[in-house]
Structures
1.
Amino acid sequence: MTTTASSTGTRLTLAKGITAGLRRAMENDPKVLVMGEDVGRLGGVFRVTEGLQKDFGEDRVIDTPLAESGIVGTAIGLALRGYRPVVEIQFDGFVYPAFDHITSQVAKMYARSLGHVTLPMVIRIPCGGGIGAVEHHSESNESYFLHSAGLRVVACSNAEDSYWMIQQAVATDDPVIFFEPKRRYHDKMVVDTSASAAPRGLYEAVVARPGEHVTVACYGPMVKTCLQAAEAAGQEGTSIEVVDLRGLNPLDTETLFASVRKTGRLVVVHEASQFLGFGAEISAQVTQECFYHLEAPVLRVTGYSTPYPASKLEELFLPDLDRVLDGVDRALAY
Amino acid sequence: MTDSDVVPEQAAAAFGVTHHENVIGTPKILSDGGPETIRFIDQDGHRIRNEVNLPYDKYVDALTEEDGRRLYRDMALIRRFDAEGTALQRQGELGLWPGLLGQEAAQVGIGRAMRPQDYAFPSYREHGVAWCRDVDPVNLLGMFRGVNNGGWDPNEKNFHLYTIVIGNQALHAVGYAMGVQRDGAVGTGDPDRDTAVVTFFGDGATSQGDINESFVFAAVNQSPIVFFCQNNQWAISEPNERQTRIPLYQRARGFGFPGVRVDGNDVLATYAVSMHALDEARSGQGPFLIEAYTYRMGAHTTSDDPTKYRDSAELDIWRERDPLLRLKSFLLSLHETEQAFFDEVDREADELAARIRTACQEMPDPPHSQMFDRVYVEPHAGLEKERDEFVAYQAGFEGEGN
Ligand SMILES: Cc1ncc(C[n+]2csc(CCOP(=O)(O)OP(=O)(O)O)c2C)c(N)n1
Ligand SMILES: [Mg+2]
């Protein structure tokens, strides 16, 4: 399996990659603030902000009242005053009280002000399922944000990316929705934290595993699943190219189209429900731009178009190795 | 009799409370609610008569010793049920369990003050209210075992599904109460017809827009609703002072309806105040806020580790205010209650625990296609297609291994 991490460096979990990245961002820029529910003394329910309040104080790491609309609404004001807030939403399913601010104000402020004000804020959302949680703790709601022009949307899939991407997101002058795959929070990787610059751009897609026969495009929690599927398929003689999209909006179409033109086949994998999921947009763009290279229709392997089920059923809802391989087989069958 | 509201300097330091400029106000975590708190039995089980509780006296005086024992039994049984929930989570039978340890009196007091036609809109911790509404406790386990997302019929016992998104249920409750008004089921004087709605939420929840909006809607409509806030001092790791600068019950005044603070660890007090508030609502006097001042003695949920953010000395103080111990001393100070009663309740609790345990372990996994069921009331072709694909795909595995 290919890995892009350097072999020297610090061994970090995906969660601690974000912690380290945030710490560095806060050291570099006194305007960077962290705010959310339980992010201070507790360090967040996933401990992503652990230790930050102790070191940067209560003015910069704010345990907010329990109100997501309030959190994002006041983050807007802080940004207007020159701060760079990094907001933590405790779980994907709890972002909706803030949805009004995110779609009506955060996404549009730059355009509304004809460029006079920017909102350089990051909204971190632990996303996706697979942890056996109760309702509202396992959702993949990226489509809502991808559909709202003015927001940049990224998804990290490993510790090196979480470390660098959070810093890049904080440095971005546009608002960024930052998805963190919660079931991969504890996955470890060696990260070169001494490097002075990120190895790649925030929105650059990466070929996580090169292959010949079919492209599998994925992001966030599904990258690991797809790499495992590619490994399994490789042993049976099927060569899968796994593209970790990383940037969802903007989408690195150059990398994606190049891969599809090479393999002639594309399977898009995500946890979110199929209907109007990100796979639909990718499918449309690839069909339009790579039509003459396609040997098969673009296929999607996704969560079903149902509410996220009770946790005893989530393994059936979520794409797994077998379902990815099934999608690959169907693509190859054309 | 009551503890002072003022936290000594050293105690504050022991709690890691720095008197940072931005953290204004004395931490009240050791406070028992202050002099405005309505209370009928003190920590040692003595009956209190004072000006604050006088208006509610009649409800307590109407209770027999037998009623007191019933309230004790309710609290003891739900405490045991709750402990079983925690144990089942530890043993992997449940994915998560939000405990109610310490909040039994708050929940039983109002639960027993409600009438069959009243309706409850809970958050996720109201196992004691569910018990009083006669909801089979086994039903409460389903969502925490991951076999469903609620499952019971809310209209069977007038106990709505648990709501996890903080604050949502309060607006549903107000809307329901607006329906009650339109049905003419308020202020008729008929005790079997007049209906009140109760919604439950925590101290943290009071920061949510939904809670504040529900106050506005209820006030504007003069709806028959009781807002029952269990102030257990903590919203996961955040203490009260991250949510409010005034006692929560005082918020009601700004919205235009009465609010009181009751000792949430004194079941006679929560019962009496709830009786009053519900009577007011049913008779058309409009909304009422009850702040039940209590303490979350356990973790937020089984996923939480409170040692990360609070001092165990705080728990020690609140242990002395244990709602069960308090009622027990009170009952023992009366005439007819013997130790044998408590032994009998313990035995009953053992039975309940055993029943819960078995029922939980035997709870069947849901059918695979459950996630496609009942998404829409009317047929939906797109969903049917996905279901067919799902069924066909799963069938491919069934042949395997044959
Ligand atoms: C909208 C929303 N945001 C965040 C959460 C995560 N969460 C669950 S419980 C909780 C704290 C609730 O505190 P409080 O209202 O005091 O109720 P308690 O749990 O103490 O009974 C939080 C932040 C949630 N469930 N819903
Ligand atoms: Mg609370």
2.
Amino acid sequence: MTLYAVQKFLYELNRTPSLQTAYSNNRHAVLEPYDLTEEEQEALVAPDIGKLFHIGVNGQILMHFAAFHHIEWQDYLQRMRDGIATYGPVREGVYAMTTGIDEVVVAHNEAGGGSS
Amino acid sequence: MSLVFAGVCSHAPGITGRAHMADPEVRDRFYESFHQMSRDLHAAQPDALVIIAAEHFANFFMNNMPSFAIGMADTYEGPIEDPGWLGIQRRQVRGNRDISQRFIAEVMNSTDIAYAEEWKFDHGIMVPLHFLTPDYDIPVIPVNVNCQGPPLAPLHRAWAFGEAMRRACDALPERIAIIGTGGISHWPATPDSGKINKAWDHEFMRLWCANDKDALLNAEKYNDLQVYSDAGQGGFEIRTFITVAAAAGGAKGTVHFCEPIPIFAVSCTVATYDLA
Ligand SMILES: [Fe+2]
């Protein structure tokens, strides 16, 4: 149930500008009503994108949470990769990692680099 | 009147949001294909554009997740994403509550759906509209298919939904266009983003063009487990393409563009059916 609560929070945050403002002002207070474990709460507040990906947060909502924290795209991908390296494979859900830990899927400058 | 235009296109947020990071040569040919689709869409003079996108947790969540939903409002807003991140300004988008309501009522004759009088558009609709109706001059009827949170409606239900929408088009006096949006194979918003199964994409689009119902609904090839393995979790979005195939009622299609642009995370695709 708790992964559900993490995702429910992110879903509501992503679509509610007033909640985004409130969260920017006081992260802990906004998270209070959600049924979260300490691990989840810490991962959200940090934010630890790699941990959130590892516990199974759906990428469609996680990528907006990363953008909310001004984490740029390649950094977002790297943080998920680092999360897998640090914490292990994704625990549940359909958003996982199938490529190798150090695999470069898209070069930083695609025009000059390859892809797999 | 009837269905006057049917096609599919990609909707990945990178198409607008990460435009500067793509190979300009391929990107610009893809954009031109999108612009041609826009000209063809306008030439068909539709009174409304039914745009079938895939759920990305913008409007619905697992507390109450419809397999199929249709919007029923005079105005919508989007994008839900940060406008700077997506590269599309937030705005109101015109709908048509009256046409929506009659369209929904006809669909309900054969398919159970949810309707929604509020709808925040995400990249699944905003990215295609950015190219197809840059002046937002055609009223939109948004449609959502759950391709995100399993269990997902099986493909034959997506087909039945497409047929129901076609019957609704045929029953309404207005001229209706239908466009399905989504990826084919892709692993979006994961560390695998940019991985693309080009051969799988081309095979799927070949079947889509042939409008080969049995092959598109092949339970061995396109069951969710197999699709997940071959085409990633983004591959579940073939439901939107299959819905359009069914709505096209046996028409044959043409792929105008289908090439991988890894920083956009998909084989960028533009294809239409010949309804004549
Ligand atoms: Fe999508």
3.
Amino acid sequence: MNNNNRHLISILMENEAGALSRVANLFSARGYNIESLTVAPTDDPSLSRLTLVTYGNEQIIEQIVKQLNKLIDVVKLIDLSETDAIERELMLVKTKASGEQRAEMKRLADIFGGHVLDVTEATYTIELTGTGSKLDNFLRAIEKEAILEVVRSGATGIALGQKALRV
Amino acid sequence: MDLITGAEILVRCLKEEGVECMFGYPGGAVLHIYDALYAQDHIKHVLVRHEQAAVHAAEGYARASGKTGVVLVTSGPGVTNAVTGIADAYMDSIPLVVFSGQVPTALIGNDAFQEVDAVGITRPCVKHNFLVRDIKNLAETIKKAFYIASTGRPGPVLIDLPKDITIGKAEFHYPKKIKLRSYNPTVKGHAGQIRKAVDLILSAKRPVIYTGGGVILSEGSPELVELTQLLGYPITNTLMGLGAYPATDRQFIGMLGMHGTYEANMAMHHCDVLIAIGARFDDRVTGKIDKFCPEAKIVHVDIDPSSISKNVQVDIPIVGSVPSVLRGMINVVRDEKLKPDAEALDRWWRQIDEWRAMKSLSYRQSDEVIKPQYVIQKLYEVTEGKAIVTSDVGQHQMWAAQYYLFDRPRQWINSGGLGTMGFGLPAAMGAKLAFPDQDVACVTGDGSIQMMLQELSTMKQYYTPVKIVNLNNGYLGMVRQWQEFFYQKRYSMTYLEALPNFVMLAEAYGHVGMRIEKPGDVEGALREAFAMKDRTVFLDFITDQGENVFPMIPSGGGQNEMLLAERDEMVSTHDEGMVLL
Ligand SMILES: Cc1cc2nc3c(=O)[nH]c(=O)nc-3n(C[C@H](O)[C@H](O)[C@H](O)COP(=O)(O)OP(=O)(O)OC[C@H]3O[C@@H](n4cnc5c(N)ncnc54)[C@H](O)[C@@H]3O)c2cc1C
Ligand SMILES: Cc1ncc(C[n+]2csc(CCOP(=O)(O)OP(=O)(O)O)c2C)c(N)n1
Ligand SMILES: [Mg+2]
């Protein structure tokens, strides 16, 4: 009961000014953990899709879901950790890539299914998508000193099967 | 269709909503609105002397009448002054619509004169808020605001109005109905859950009904009384729930919680089934959570799913509105001719009566010095238990809650969740405006009254005769009590030296002032004051400086760990309790 599980919560909300601050505010005001948060408009321009990753025991997650639902701008939400779902995150990494490092870096990027988007004589810029832990693994696999810059989008996700989160 | 200004649209919307009375204070950003108000006479506008008072007065009006309170303030300092009131309404779930002026749209974000981010500042303490950026959305936004404020779990809604929106012109069209796809409170309880709850309730050997502000907010008192009497179970109310069940009825066992009665808290601690209705398991009620109702299965009825299992895990949650859910329960009990366990109930009542016999609200009367409890008892007698009583925050608030027996909902008006000193006087003014023919008393303290004293001037201007009962102990008494108990009597910054002469002060504002120093004069003074129907009277009762509020559960204690007057020597609480406040 007291273990802090990771939850991926996906929210459809009114595409109104301030809607994002309401969610961010809620998490800081109530002291909930927030690891990542992404937001963008959807195919329906009146709606935004917001996905966040949070940690907490069952009771805390239940409160988070209830408090989110209580926000007037929130239309619908789903805790993707409670169903079969796909999680994806995009990462861009700029790495050192000179000498023998260069071939090794390319090999690792290939193993992880990444693409090299930009090349200079001393660096690579690699694009990688996957679950958060896959991205973590990649960063662990390459030499720490080789990393020049890391940009991560934060996790997004979608449920498997025919179920769709729509209005 | 004619084009009218945004300010005129606002006034027309208020009329459509049936607003009769509003509270506010002008300034540059709302001048156009004030001009539109000048041109009409449907809505009475009360000019307060401080924006915080505008909100508390609107709360008093709303709490007394059940209508939505309306406030209008200007940008910048106008709205920041209103924030305390808005937070107060938020904590106690009071329906308000607050209009704040804003700098013109083109200047927003420029650090313009009297600009503050009103929507940002109020976001954590409103049910919802809006910034109107297009006059075409104005009427619909106002409709939404009233709808959101007054439905579901009520609360304050703020609308920020840039000045150009109030000046611009548009057609007026007020939507008759509104539907929000993202907001749809559940009113009707789940039939299966109601059924399960009834089974559990009737299986109880030691039941307690614990109800709160939700019963009053939802006008659920008739159903609560019917169900409670049908079952014959003991009932206790929170500070916010007083009056929902008549305090003079035998089944009422008093308020529960930190300053609740012995019988209410002991019954809570020993009950096997707890029926919680429109109450939110506040920490002033539960005491230490691990020690709360250790043997009970819990049913919880609340319209806000986030109130359920927030502090205490419950066994049978029912999301819905009090009247509808209780009607459902009553129907099941009646239709199936179900009966509680009479024998067990009889045993339970005998136990409760033993606890009751402790007379936990008794206090030692004195011939020399006025006991504050005695003033409230006399207030109750003189007003025949019928007055609307508002209160400030402190010891006097607890004594008012304990010794005035409230028999009807909306008779007791106080700041419970935020505990805002200064609430009482403007709230009394608002209540009096809602019910000009009823007696209104404001129970206050020498500290609290000085936080909103300027409203004596508003009360003169608008003829809102209320009786101010000042329990003057020369101290920030509630804080002094804690210092006595938990800080070895180190009375740091709680003695109010240089109190004003309240009699002269009342007179300066054009009211009647009375100073009462002897117990023998208490009743006479009250009678004299209430006989002056058309005057505001400031009764300054010089009371026992050292009196404490009992019973008391020190923070960190369980509900069975109460301190009773004159019986327990208070030594100190555990460190954990000190942290809890
Ligand atoms: C100095 C001081 C001392 C205090 N001491 C005590 C004390 O000893 N005892 C005590 O009880 N309090 C005390 N309080 C008050 C305390 O802080 C809380 O404000 C109070 O206990 C909350 O009351 P409540 O649970 O009734 O909730 P409220 O704040 O009244 O909340 C109402 C609940 O009802 C729900 N609701 C609203 N509408 C509906 C509807 N239509 N249908 C169903 N549910 C609905 C809401 O969602 C909410 O959960 C004290 C306050 C102060 C300032
Ligand atoms: C605005 C505000 N500031 C501080 C407090 C903390 N506080 C709670 S009760 C109290 C003392 C109130 O004194 P008084 O009004 O004289 O009432 P008494 O307790 O003496 O009856 C204080 C300072 C508060 N509740 N509200
Ligand atoms: Mg005092």
4.
Amino acid sequence: MALLSLIYDAATLILSGMPIVIVLMVSAFFPALALGIVGGLMGASKSRLLRIVAGIYVYIFRSVPFLMFIFLVYYGLPYYGIDIGPVTTAIIALALSHGAYMTEIIRGGLLGFDKGQNEAAVALGFTITQRLRDIVLPQTLMAIIPSLLGQSILMVKDTSLVSVVGISELTRLGREVVIRTNEPFVVFTIVAAAYFVLCFGLEMVARRLEARVRKITSRQ
Amino acid sequence: MTFFEAKDVNFHFGGFHALRDVSFEFGKGDVLVVCGPSGSGKSTLIRSINRLAGPLTSGSMSIEGRDLAGLHGRELYRRIGMVFQRFNLFQHLSVLDNIALPQRRVLGKSRREAAERARALLDRVGLADKADSYPVRLSGGQQQRVAICRALAMDPELLLFDEPTSALDPEMVGEVLQVMRGLAAGGMTMIVVTHEMGFARELATEILFMEAGQVVERAPPAAFFANPREARTRVFLDQILHH
Ligand SMILES: Nc1ncnc2c1ncn2[C@@H]1O[C@H](COP(=O)(O)OP(=O)(O)OP(=O)(O)O)[C@@H](O)[C@H]1O
Ligand SMILES: [Mg+2]
């Protein structure tokens, strides 16, 4: 009985951290996607300079732990008089870091795009922006939707790291409950289950979309 | 009267001399068939007409006396359409949108106008019932007919075909050639790279035989098949007609 009420109290408190996880993920996802599209277009472009710039971005963010960027933004910027608060910090760090991974995903998608269709669009008189907007990006993004959703799962998991800057998301709330109840095993099991439900849900959506995308793009 | 003229055209891929002093001309409504062994420069020739291959090294091409090199991309592509060996339909668009979208984007037509034109063209090639299908659901022959509609919808003055039937299963070649026959009868000016010698014999105004980037022989079909001047043409015809 005591255990049940402990679980109930802990779960209620911890789940109050769920919305902020979703908010962080969703509000970082779109800037990350925008960065990924720009970075991917640069990385797949004919210009060597643009490719190098995109490459530097990708390698920096892939080679340094995410936690370092949170510290850099959270402690570093106020040092120069820029104070943006923990939530914005978290969103910027998540977007920059995952934008680098999305750059790689989108670059790969663009390089794999059917050259024949691109030529057909040129021969019909499409401008380069029309080609990208109407032909290349829709197909490329559709083909990589599953990978992008996979990336959003990693983003959910990375939000657990932003507890260090004092955002009351799942992980931080869990630690607070542990301090009060001294029941780490029960409490962190609940936290883990909450992450699992979120990520597994996304995973299911990704699977379903993947099947649909395959149906549309597969050749006979 | 001359409609299209190529004059001393040379084209290089880096250090590789792909077109060598190519010259020819033809009139409005003519069907020029281009043939020759693999690697002889047929694709390069028609792709250099609409600049897909890149700028010429030297020489010039013109339509009604206007140098193509001086035409803006938009203008050039509006005047010259192209049909590819592998159809190259837009995979994420329905058959109707494949034909309608370029009209809207490039010619600035309204959605309704473009769709109406697309439907009329589909009807002409016997694919009215496929308007809402996606390209992957069509056979090769059907896809190529859609690709022809897509090019026609732009009202080109000249249509380029790069081996339009060689990616097709034999039983589908006929339906595509039938459409092209209709175009020729309707007065469409075309350059057709093909090894369909039946088509060439029946519809070509002239046949241009290429080898190693050069025009070896150019003649009306009757003369081309009956008594080719060049030994190389004879060897090629022997191979293609008897195998
Ligand atoms: N992008 C390229 N870069 C370098 N060389 C090329 C390129 N495209 C074609 N070539 C070369 O130019 C020559 C002519 O090629 P082209 O594709 O025009 O021949 P083709 O007559 O169309 O042959 P096929 O019947 O096989 O289609 C070939 O030797 C080919 O290897
Ligand atoms: Mg070719």
